[in-house]
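Suppose a classmate hands you a notebook page containing two proteins, each written out with its sequence and a corresponding row of C-alpha coordinates. How would you begin to make sense of it? This section walks through that situation. The first entry is reproduced here exactly as it would appear on such a page.
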Amino acid sequence: MAKVDMGELLPKEAVSRRITGDTQFMFQFYKPCIQYYEPSALTRTNMSEDRLRRSLITALHGCPLLFGQFKIHPDLTISLDYDPLHSNSPTLEFQRLSVTYSQLRAQSFSYSVAKQHGLDIAIPDGSITRGFDKPMLMVKVTYLGDGGVALFSMTNHVAFD
Protein backbone atom coordinates (compact mmCIF):
# COMPACT_ATOMS: atom_id res chain seq x y z
CA MET A 1 0.00 0.00 0.00
CA ALA A 2 1.35 3.42 -0.94
CA LYS A 3 0.58 6.31 1.39
CA VAL A 4 1.39 9.83 0.23
CA ASP A 5 1.54 12.87 2.53
CA MET A 6 0.16 15.70 0.40
CA GLY A 7 0.76 18.43 2.99
CA GLU A 8 3.58 20.06 1.04
CA LEU A 9 1.06 20.81 -1.72
CA LEU A 10 -1.09 23.07 0.45
CA PRO A 11 -0.97 26.74 -0.60
CA LYS A 12 1.09 28.93 1.73
CA GLU A 13 -1.88 31.21 2.32
CA ALA A 14 -5.51 31.50 1.38
CA VAL A 15 -6.40 33.58 -1.65
CA SER A 16 -9.01 35.38 0.43
CA ARG A 17 -9.63 35.41 4.14
CA ARG A 18 -13.07 36.98 3.80
CA ILE A 19 -16.14 34.99 2.90
CA THR A 20 -18.93 36.90 1.21
CA GLY A 21 -22.30 36.04 -0.26
CA ASP A 22 -25.68 34.98 1.05
CA THR A 23 -24.59 31.96 3.03
CA GLN A 24 -27.57 30.60 4.93
CA PHE A 25 -25.74 28.41 7.39
CA MET A 26 -22.55 26.46 7.81
CA PHE A 27 -21.50 23.45 9.81
CA GLN A 28 -18.42 21.36 10.30
CA PHE A 29 -18.78 17.64 9.80
CA TYR A 30 -16.95 14.36 9.48
CA LYS A 31 -18.16 12.58 6.41
CA PRO A 32 -16.82 9.11 5.67
CA CYS A 33 -17.84 7.99 2.21
CA ILE A 34 -17.08 5.00 -0.02
CA GLN A 35 -17.88 5.25 -3.70
CA TYR A 36 -17.74 2.17 -5.91
CA TYR A 37 -17.00 2.19 -9.63
CA GLU A 38 -17.79 -0.88 -11.71
CA PRO A 39 -15.14 -2.31 -14.03
CA SER A 40 -14.94 -0.59 -17.42
CA ALA A 41 -12.44 0.99 -19.78
CA LEU A 42 -13.63 4.41 -18.60
CA THR A 43 -13.02 3.46 -14.96
CA ARG A 44 -9.48 2.29 -15.78
CA THR A 45 -8.75 5.58 -17.56
CA ASN A 46 -10.42 8.05 -15.20
CA MET A 47 -9.44 6.32 -11.96
CA SER A 48 -5.79 5.64 -12.75
CA GLU A 49 -3.37 6.35 -9.92
CA ASP A 50 -1.66 9.14 -11.86
CA ARG A 51 -4.93 10.85 -12.75
CA LEU A 52 -6.31 10.68 -9.20
CA ARG A 53 -3.05 12.02 -7.79
CA ARG A 54 -3.18 15.00 -10.20
CA SER A 55 -6.85 15.61 -9.34
CA LEU A 56 -6.09 15.79 -5.63
CA ILE A 57 -3.16 18.13 -6.24
CA THR A 58 -5.49 20.41 -8.21
CA ALA A 59 -8.13 20.23 -5.47
CA LEU A 60 -5.61 21.19 -2.80
CA HIS A 61 -4.95 24.47 -4.57
CA GLY A 62 -8.53 25.40 -3.79
CA CYS A 63 -8.22 24.05 -0.28
CA PRO A 64 -8.88 27.06 1.96
CA LEU A 65 -12.49 25.86 2.27
CA LEU A 66 -11.25 22.38 3.20
CA PHE A 67 -8.36 23.37 5.41
CA GLY A 68 -9.49 26.68 6.84
CA GLN A 69 -11.29 27.14 10.12
CA PHE A 70 -14.08 29.67 10.05
CA LYS A 71 -14.77 32.35 12.63
CA ILE A 72 -18.02 34.24 13.04
CA HIS A 73 -17.36 37.75 14.37
CA PRO A 74 -19.68 39.84 16.58
CA ASP A 75 -20.77 41.85 13.52
CA LEU A 76 -21.76 38.50 11.93
CA THR A 77 -19.05 38.64 9.28
CA ILE A 78 -17.18 35.43 8.66
CA SER A 79 -13.45 35.12 8.20
CA LEU A 80 -11.26 32.23 7.20
CA ASP A 81 -8.41 31.24 9.50
CA TYR A 82 -6.11 29.34 7.19
CA ASP A 83 -2.61 28.21 8.08
CA PRO A 84 -1.17 25.10 6.41
CA LEU A 85 1.09 24.56 9.43
CA HIS A 86 -1.96 24.06 11.66
CA SER A 87 -3.67 21.52 9.41
CA ASN A 88 -3.49 17.77 9.42
CA SER A 89 -1.61 16.82 6.29
CA PRO A 90 -3.98 15.48 3.64
CA THR A 91 -3.21 11.86 2.83
CA LEU A 92 -3.76 9.73 -0.24
CA GLU A 93 -3.41 5.94 -0.15
CA PHE A 94 -3.51 3.33 -2.90
CA GLN A 95 -3.91 -0.44 -2.58
CA ARG A 96 -4.79 -3.43 -4.74
CA LEU A 97 -7.01 -6.26 -3.47
CA SER A 98 -8.32 -9.52 -4.90
CA VAL A 99 -11.89 -8.88 -3.71
CA THR A 100 -14.07 -7.91 -6.68
CA TYR A 101 -16.69 -5.27 -7.39
CA SER A 102 -19.16 -8.09 -8.06
CA GLN A 103 -18.52 -9.65 -4.63
CA LEU A 104 -19.02 -6.30 -2.88
CA ARG A 105 -22.19 -5.58 -4.87
CA ALA A 106 -23.56 -9.04 -3.98
CA GLN A 107 -23.24 -7.99 -0.33
CA SER A 108 -25.04 -4.67 -0.99
CA PHE A 109 -21.80 -2.69 -0.60
CA SER A 110 -22.10 -3.21 3.16
CA TYR A 111 -19.84 -0.91 5.18
CA SER A 112 -18.97 -3.77 7.54
CA VAL A 113 -17.76 -5.83 4.55
CA ALA A 114 -15.79 -2.83 3.26
CA LYS A 115 -14.21 -2.42 6.68
CA GLN A 116 -13.41 -6.14 6.83
CA HIS A 117 -11.49 -5.81 3.54
CA GLY A 118 -9.70 -2.63 4.67
CA LEU A 119 -11.33 -0.28 2.17
CA ASP A 120 -11.66 2.47 4.79
CA ILE A 121 -9.23 4.47 6.92
CA ALA A 122 -9.60 4.61 10.69
CA ILE A 123 -10.20 8.04 12.20
CA PRO A 124 -7.00 9.09 14.00
CA ASP A 125 -7.32 8.90 17.79
CA GLY A 126 -8.35 12.21 19.29
CA SER A 127 -9.14 13.87 15.98
CA ILE A 128 -12.79 14.47 16.80
CA THR A 129 -12.34 16.06 20.20
CA ARG A 130 -12.67 19.82 20.26
CA GLY A 131 -9.04 20.36 21.19
CA PHE A 132 -7.76 18.37 18.23
CA ASP A 133 -10.34 19.47 15.70
CA LYS A 134 -8.01 20.27 12.83
CA PRO A 135 -8.99 20.30 9.17
CA MET A 136 -8.49 16.89 7.62
CA LEU A 137 -8.74 15.09 4.28
CA MET A 138 -8.05 11.38 3.88
CA VAL A 139 -8.46 9.48 0.61
CA LYS A 140 -7.90 5.75 0.00
CA VAL A 141 -8.20 4.21 -3.45
CA THR A 142 -8.58 0.44 -3.74
CA TYR A 143 -8.18 -1.23 -7.11
CA LEU A 144 -10.39 -4.32 -7.02
CA GLY A 145 -9.58 -7.72 -8.50
CA ASP A 146 -11.98 -7.42 -11.45
CA GLY A 147 -11.01 -3.88 -12.47
CA GLY A 148 -13.50 -2.06 -10.25
CA VAL A 149 -12.49 0.71 -7.88
CA ALA A 150 -13.50 1.59 -4.31
CA LEU A 151 -12.79 5.20 -3.34
CA PHE A 152 -12.92 6.02 0.39
CA SER A 153 -12.76 9.65 1.46
CA MET A 154 -13.23 11.43 4.74
CA THR A 155 -13.06 15.07 5.57
CA ASN A 156 -14.13 17.33 8.39
CA HIS A 157 -14.48 20.43 6.29
CA VAL A 158 -17.05 23.17 6.67
CA ALA A 159 -20.08 22.89 4.41
CA PHE A 160 -22.32 25.73 3.26
CA ASP A 161 -25.93 25.82 2.18
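The notebook's second entry, a different protein, reads as follows.
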Amino acid sequence: MTTAGTEEVPTTEEPTTEEPRTAEDGILELAEEPVDEETAGEPSDEAPELEASDTDASEEEDAIPEAELRSALEALLFAAAEPLPLQRLSRLFQGQGRGAVKKALAALQEELAANERGIRLVEVSSGYQFRSAPEHAPWLRRFFAEKPPRLSRALLETISIIAYRQPVTRGEIESIRGVNCDAILTALQNRDLILATGRRDTPGRPVEYGTTAEFLELFTMRDLSELPPLPDAESLANLLKEDAVQEESEASADGEELATNMDAGSGEGESLPDGGTDGGPGGQQAAAGEGE
Protein backbone atom coordinates (compact mmCIF):
# COMPACT_ATOMS: atom_id res chain seq x y z
CA MET A 1 0.00 0.00 0.00
CA THR A 2 1.42 3.42 -0.91
CA THR A 3 0.63 6.88 0.39
CA ALA A 4 1.49 10.23 -1.01
CA GLY A 5 4.94 11.24 -0.21
CA THR A 6 5.96 7.93 0.96
CA GLU A 7 8.05 5.36 -0.77
CA GLU A 8 6.69 1.87 -1.24
CA VAL A 9 8.60 -0.64 0.78
CA PRO A 10 8.36 -4.21 -0.53
CA THR A 11 7.38 -6.81 1.99
CA THR A 12 9.06 -10.13 1.72
CA GLU A 13 7.63 -13.31 3.23
CA GLU A 14 9.95 -15.88 4.56
CA PRO A 15 9.62 -19.10 2.51
CA THR A 16 8.39 -22.16 4.41
CA THR A 17 10.42 -25.21 3.76
CA GLU A 18 8.73 -28.55 4.56
CA GLU A 19 10.86 -31.67 4.62
CA PRO A 20 9.52 -34.58 2.54
CA ARG A 21 7.66 -37.31 4.47
CA THR A 22 9.30 -40.66 4.84
CA ALA A 23 7.97 -44.12 5.58
CA GLU A 24 9.33 -43.86 9.11
CA ASP A 25 7.18 -40.77 9.73
CA GLY A 26 4.06 -42.63 8.66
CA ILE A 27 4.87 -45.52 10.95
CA LEU A 28 5.43 -43.18 13.87
CA GLU A 29 2.09 -41.44 13.27
CA LEU A 30 0.27 -44.75 13.21
CA ALA A 31 1.95 -45.75 16.45
CA GLU A 32 0.88 -42.45 18.11
CA GLU A 33 -2.81 -42.84 17.09
CA PRO A 34 -5.07 -43.91 19.98
CA VAL A 35 -6.20 -47.50 19.96
CA ASP A 36 -9.72 -48.51 20.87
CA GLU A 37 -9.21 -51.05 23.64
CA GLU A 38 -12.68 -52.55 23.15
CA THR A 39 -12.07 -53.62 19.53
CA ALA A 40 -8.35 -54.30 19.82
CA GLY A 41 -7.35 -57.93 19.45
CA GLU A 42 -10.69 -59.03 18.00
CA PRO A 43 -10.04 -61.01 14.77
CA SER A 44 -12.04 -60.34 11.66
CA ASP A 45 -14.36 -63.25 10.91
CA GLU A 46 -15.32 -62.22 7.41
CA ALA A 47 -12.58 -64.02 5.47
CA PRO A 48 -12.61 -67.25 7.54
CA GLU A 49 -16.39 -67.49 7.19
CA LEU A 50 -16.09 -67.17 3.43
CA GLU A 51 -13.39 -69.86 3.25
CA ALA A 52 -15.35 -72.20 5.48
CA SER A 53 -18.47 -71.82 3.36
CA ASP A 54 -16.49 -72.65 0.21
CA THR A 55 -15.04 -75.79 1.83
CA ASP A 56 -18.46 -76.98 3.03
CA ALA A 57 -19.91 -76.46 -0.43
CA SER A 58 -17.16 -78.53 -2.08
CA GLU A 59 -17.58 -81.34 0.45
CA GLU A 60 -21.34 -81.34 -0.10
CA GLU A 61 -20.79 -81.64 -3.84
CA ASP A 62 -18.45 -84.65 -3.51
CA ALA A 63 -20.31 -86.42 -0.68
CA ILE A 64 -22.66 -89.23 -1.75
CA PRO A 65 -24.94 -91.52 0.26
CA GLU A 66 -23.43 -94.68 1.71
CA ALA A 67 -25.61 -96.97 -0.42
CA GLU A 68 -24.55 -95.17 -3.61
CA LEU A 69 -20.89 -95.34 -2.54
CA ARG A 70 -21.16 -99.10 -1.98
CA SER A 71 -22.82 -99.53 -5.37
CA ALA A 72 -20.15 -97.45 -7.11
CA LEU A 73 -17.37 -99.47 -5.46
CA GLU A 74 -19.02 -102.69 -6.62
CA ALA A 75 -19.09 -101.41 -10.21
CA LEU A 76 -15.44 -100.32 -10.10
CA LEU A 77 -14.25 -103.63 -8.67
CA PHE A 78 -16.28 -105.55 -11.24
CA ALA A 79 -14.79 -103.59 -14.14
CA ALA A 80 -11.19 -103.67 -12.88
CA ALA A 81 -8.90 -106.31 -14.33
CA GLU A 82 -6.63 -106.30 -11.27
CA PRO A 83 -6.95 -105.60 -7.53
CA LEU A 84 -7.67 -101.99 -6.59
CA PRO A 85 -5.78 -100.60 -3.57
CA LEU A 86 -7.63 -98.64 -0.89
CA GLN A 87 -5.50 -95.55 -1.53
CA ARG A 88 -6.58 -95.39 -5.17
CA LEU A 89 -10.25 -95.86 -4.30
CA SER A 90 -10.03 -93.12 -1.68
CA ARG A 91 -8.65 -90.69 -4.27
CA LEU A 92 -11.67 -91.35 -6.50
CA PHE A 93 -14.07 -90.45 -3.66
CA GLN A 94 -12.31 -87.47 -2.08
CA GLY A 95 -15.46 -86.17 -0.42
CA GLN A 96 -15.96 -89.41 1.49
CA GLY A 97 -12.60 -89.93 3.15
CA ARG A 98 -10.50 -93.07 3.55
CA GLY A 99 -12.46 -94.31 6.56
CA ALA A 100 -15.82 -94.10 4.78
CA VAL A 101 -14.51 -95.98 1.74
CA LYS A 102 -13.05 -98.73 3.91
CA LYS A 103 -16.31 -99.01 5.84
CA ALA A 104 -18.27 -99.34 2.58
CA LEU A 105 -15.91 -102.09 1.37
CA ALA A 106 -16.38 -104.00 4.63
CA ALA A 107 -20.17 -103.68 4.30
CA LEU A 108 -19.97 -104.99 0.72
CA GLN A 109 -17.89 -107.96 1.89
CA GLU A 110 -20.46 -108.83 4.57
CA GLU A 111 -23.36 -108.42 2.15
CA LEU A 112 -21.90 -110.80 -0.41
CA ALA A 113 -21.04 -113.42 2.21
CA ALA A 114 -24.36 -113.21 4.07
CA ASN A 115 -26.55 -113.55 0.97
CA GLU A 116 -24.71 -116.69 -0.23
CA ARG A 117 -23.65 -114.99 -3.45
CA GLY A 118 -21.39 -116.72 -5.94
CA ILE A 119 -18.66 -114.10 -5.63
CA ARG A 120 -16.65 -112.80 -2.72
CA LEU A 121 -14.84 -109.52 -2.16
CA VAL A 122 -11.38 -110.39 -0.87
CA GLU A 123 -8.48 -108.21 0.20
CA VAL A 124 -5.08 -109.29 -1.07
CA SER A 125 -1.68 -107.66 -0.82
CA SER A 126 -2.28 -105.29 -3.75
CA GLY A 127 -5.87 -104.30 -2.96
CA TYR A 128 -9.47 -105.49 -3.21
CA GLN A 129 -10.76 -107.89 -5.87
CA PHE A 130 -13.85 -109.95 -6.70
CA ARG A 131 -13.29 -113.72 -6.73
CA SER A 132 -15.52 -116.73 -7.09
CA ALA A 133 -16.76 -118.41 -3.94
CA PRO A 134 -14.55 -121.38 -3.01
CA GLU A 135 -17.53 -123.73 -2.64
CA HIS A 136 -18.35 -123.34 -6.34
CA ALA A 137 -14.93 -124.53 -7.54
CA PRO A 138 -16.28 -127.91 -8.84
CA TRP A 139 -18.77 -126.14 -11.11
CA LEU A 140 -16.08 -123.84 -12.43
CA ARG A 141 -13.79 -126.79 -13.18
CA ARG A 142 -16.64 -128.47 -15.04
CA PHE A 143 -17.36 -125.29 -17.02
CA PHE A 144 -13.77 -124.63 -18.08
CA ALA A 145 -12.57 -127.48 -20.28
CA GLU A 146 -8.93 -126.41 -19.93
CA LYS A 147 -7.51 -127.29 -16.55
CA PRO A 148 -5.84 -124.41 -14.72
CA PRO A 149 -2.09 -124.68 -14.30
CA ARG A 150 -1.21 -126.60 -11.17
CA LEU A 151 1.81 -126.43 -8.96
CA SER A 152 3.57 -129.77 -8.77
CA ARG A 153 4.62 -131.27 -5.48
CA ALA A 154 8.22 -130.15 -6.03
CA LEU A 155 7.10 -126.56 -6.73
CA LEU A 156 4.88 -126.53 -3.66
CA GLU A 157 7.62 -127.86 -1.41
CA THR A 158 10.13 -125.33 -2.68
CA ILE A 159 7.85 -122.31 -2.48
CA SER A 160 6.74 -123.36 1.00
CA ILE A 161 10.34 -123.36 2.18
CA ILE A 162 10.89 -119.92 0.67
CA ALA A 163 7.65 -118.51 2.14
CA TYR A 164 8.39 -119.62 5.70
CA ARG A 165 12.16 -119.05 5.75
CA GLN A 166 12.71 -116.09 3.43
CA PRO A 167 15.16 -114.71 2.64
CA VAL A 168 16.68 -118.10 1.87
CA THR A 169 19.48 -119.23 -0.45
CA ARG A 170 19.47 -122.04 -3.01
CA GLY A 171 21.91 -124.04 -0.88
CA GLU A 172 19.59 -123.88 2.13
CA ILE A 173 16.63 -125.01 0.03
CA GLU A 174 18.59 -127.93 -1.41
CA SER A 175 19.81 -128.98 2.05
CA ILE A 176 16.17 -129.21 3.18
CA ARG A 177 14.79 -130.96 0.09
CA GLY A 178 17.89 -133.06 -0.58
CA VAL A 179 17.82 -132.51 -4.37
CA ASN A 180 19.01 -129.93 -6.89
CA CYS A 181 16.58 -127.02 -7.17
CA ASP A 182 17.90 -125.00 -10.12
CA ALA A 183 15.03 -125.94 -12.46
CA ILE A 184 12.43 -125.50 -9.73
CA LEU A 185 13.66 -122.01 -8.83
CA THR A 186 13.67 -121.03 -12.50
CA ALA A 187 10.08 -122.27 -12.91
CA LEU A 188 8.92 -120.31 -9.86
CA GLN A 189 10.65 -117.17 -11.13
CA ASN A 190 9.03 -117.58 -14.55
CA ARG A 191 5.64 -117.67 -12.82
CA ASP A 192 6.54 -114.49 -10.85
CA LEU A 193 6.01 -116.32 -7.55
CA ILE A 194 9.52 -115.68 -6.22
CA LEU A 195 12.28 -113.19 -6.90
CA ALA A 196 15.88 -112.55 -5.94
CA THR A 197 15.87 -110.16 -2.98
CA GLY A 198 19.63 -109.66 -2.70
CA ARG A 199 22.86 -111.40 -1.84
CA ARG A 200 23.94 -112.76 1.52
CA ASP A 201 27.06 -111.32 3.05
CA THR A 202 28.85 -114.66 3.25
CA PRO A 203 31.64 -116.24 1.18
CA GLY A 204 30.47 -116.56 -2.39
CA ARG A 205 27.66 -114.05 -1.78
CA PRO A 206 24.82 -116.45 -2.69
CA VAL A 207 21.53 -115.08 -3.98
CA GLU A 208 18.65 -114.87 -1.51
CA TYR A 209 15.06 -115.57 -2.60
CA GLY A 210 11.69 -114.34 -1.34
CA THR A 211 8.04 -114.46 -2.35
CA THR A 212 6.23 -111.84 -4.46
CA ALA A 213 2.86 -110.08 -4.43
CA GLU A 214 1.67 -112.59 -7.04
CA PHE A 215 2.33 -115.36 -4.51
CA LEU A 216 0.09 -113.64 -1.98
CA GLU A 217 -2.64 -113.11 -4.57
CA LEU A 218 -2.48 -116.75 -5.70
CA PHE A 219 -3.05 -118.01 -2.16
CA THR A 220 -5.47 -115.15 -1.22
CA MET A 221 -3.39 -113.52 1.50
CA ARG A 222 -2.82 -109.89 2.40
CA ASP A 223 0.63 -110.48 3.87
CA LEU A 224 2.87 -113.25 5.14
CA SER A 225 1.36 -113.04 8.63
CA GLU A 226 -1.64 -114.95 7.24
CA LEU A 227 0.48 -118.03 6.49
CA PRO A 228 -0.92 -121.05 8.33
CA PRO A 229 1.15 -122.31 11.25
CA LEU A 230 3.68 -124.99 10.47
CA PRO A 231 2.49 -128.50 11.41
CA ASP A 232 4.49 -130.80 13.63
CA ALA A 233 6.68 -133.53 12.19
CA GLU A 234 4.03 -136.27 12.38
CA SER A 235 1.33 -134.17 10.73
CA LEU A 236 3.73 -133.07 8.03
CA ALA A 237 4.65 -136.69 7.27
CA ASN A 238 0.96 -137.60 6.95
CA LEU A 239 0.33 -134.69 4.62
CA LEU A 240 3.23 -135.66 2.39
CA LYS A 241 2.01 -139.26 2.34
CA GLU A 242 -1.49 -138.15 1.31
CA ASP A 243 -0.05 -135.96 -1.45
CA ALA A 244 2.02 -138.86 -2.76
CA VAL A 245 -1.03 -141.17 -2.83
CA GLN A 246 -3.07 -138.53 -4.64
CA GLU A 247 -0.36 -138.00 -7.25
CA GLU A 248 -0.09 -141.75 -7.84
CA SER A 249 -3.86 -142.08 -8.29
CA GLU A 250 -3.94 -139.19 -10.72
CA ALA A 251 -1.03 -140.62 -12.68
CA SER A 252 -2.69 -144.05 -12.89
CA ALA A 253 -5.95 -142.45 -14.03
CA ASP A 254 -4.11 -140.57 -16.77
CA GLY A 255 -2.38 -143.81 -17.83
CA GLU A 256 -5.66 -145.72 -18.03
CA GLU A 257 -7.19 -142.96 -20.12
CA LEU A 258 -4.22 -143.00 -22.48
CA ALA A 259 -4.39 -146.80 -22.85
CA THR A 260 -8.12 -146.63 -23.58
CA ASN A 261 -7.55 -144.05 -26.29
CA MET A 262 -4.79 -146.17 -27.85
CA ASP A 263 -7.02 -149.27 -27.87
CA ALA A 264 -9.84 -147.33 -29.48
CA GLY A 265 -7.50 -146.01 -32.14
CA SER A 266 -6.10 -149.44 -32.99
CA GLY A 267 -9.58 -150.90 -33.49
CA GLU A 268 -10.79 -148.31 -35.97
CA GLY A 269 -9.90 -150.49 -39.05
CA GLU A 270 -12.48 -153.18 -39.96
CA SER A 271 -11.01 -156.72 -40.08
CA LEU A 272 -11.39 -158.84 -43.22
CA PRO A 273 -11.81 -162.63 -43.33
CA ASP A 274 -8.30 -163.11 -44.71
CA GLY A 275 -6.82 -161.29 -41.66
CA GLY A 276 -6.10 -158.00 -43.41
CA THR A 277 -7.73 -154.71 -42.71
CA ASP A 278 -9.75 -152.68 -45.12
CA GLY A 279 -7.40 -150.38 -46.97
CA GLY A 280 -4.39 -151.52 -44.92
CA PRO A 281 -1.18 -153.20 -45.99
CA GLY A 282 -2.59 -156.64 -45.12
CA GLY A 283 -5.52 -156.19 -47.47
CA GLN A 284 -3.24 -155.19 -50.30
CA GLN A 285 -1.03 -158.24 -49.75
CA ALA A 286 -4.09 -160.55 -49.76
CA ALA A 287 -5.37 -159.05 -53.00
CA ALA A 288 -1.97 -159.54 -54.60
CA GLY A 289 -1.88 -163.21 -53.54
CA GLU A 290 -5.26 -163.90 -55.08
CA GLY A 291 -4.14 -162.33 -58.36
CA GLU A 292 -1.19 -164.67 -58.57
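A careful reader of the second entry would note: The longest strand covers residues 119-124.
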